[in-house]
Amino acid sequence: AQRVTQPEKLLSVFKGAPVELKCNYSYSGSPELFWYVQYSRQRLQLLLRHISRESIKGFTADLNKGETSFHLKKPFAQEEDSAMYYCALESGGSNYKLTFGKGTLLTVNP
Amino acid sequence: DTAVSQTPKYLVTQMGNDKSIKCEQNLGHDTMYWYKQDSKKFLKIMFSYNNKELIINETVPNRFSPKSPDKAHLNLHINSLELGDSAVYFCASSPPSGRAEGLFFGEGSRLTVL
User: Under an 8 A CB cutoff, do B90 and A44 touch?
Assistant: First the structure.
């Protein structure tokens, strides 16, 4: 069965500092991984998907199959980055399903 | 606006009551979902429908019954509400490409059971 682990419930950094939100996964197939973000009292939004290798709002994430990780990084955190971040793994096959990690609440202090 | 919309956004009710949450998407997606976000912000899938057919049914009490009258709508009916049902319920949809675009979420329906 697939599993997504985000080891940090809370992460606090100062504005301008680098930030890394950790995500590890367990899946027997070929993983498709995503990062979702939820700003205060807003809907979840897709932030990044590993297949597109893009940088959104300065965030990047690289899939490391050897370490089964998909950590989210940003070199210089901004206050508006404060939000709940969820790592998600898609299980393949005909039933498209996303399994979410428990989330990491990022607080960027001024 | 093209989106996933849920009603109501807030619902406060007594234990034992029956309530429904409605979801509609005008994105032309084939698959819709219900996710539950508990007080610890943990998100867990409950149900998934593809073209009105139930395809994912996680371990959810029978008191929860989803209904999809058409592929643009997925409603959630809850019987005999319990305190532990208090949560934010998110509806979501995904296009046939699924993998490339991820899920599109509604704004959530915050259910409080007293």
Answer: yes
Nearest CA-CA partner of A24 in A102, A83, A105: A102
pLDDT tens readout for residues A16-75: 999 999 999 998 887 889 999 999 888 888 898 887 777 889 999 989 989 999 999 999
Residue from A54, A41, A46 nearest A98 by CA: A46
Strand order in the sheet with B19-25: B4-7, B19-25, B73-78, B64-70
CA distance B96 to chain A (A): 9
**How far from A40 is each of A30, A58, A107, B60, CA to CA, in Å?**
33, 20, 11, 27
Q: For chain A, say whether B39 makes contact (Cβ under 8 Å).
A: no
Residues A23, A29, A31, A32: what is their CA dihedral angle, to the nearest 10 degrees? -140
The set of residues, in sequence order, having a beta carbon less than 8 Å from that of B46 and lying 6+ positions away, is B33, B34, B35, B36, B58, B60, B64, B66, B76
The DSSP-derived string for chain B is --SEEEE-SEEEE-TT--EEEEEEE-S--SEEEEEEE-TT--EEEEEEEETTEEEEE-S--TTEEEEEEETTEEEEEE-S--GGG-EEEEEEEE-TTTTTT--EE---EEEEE-
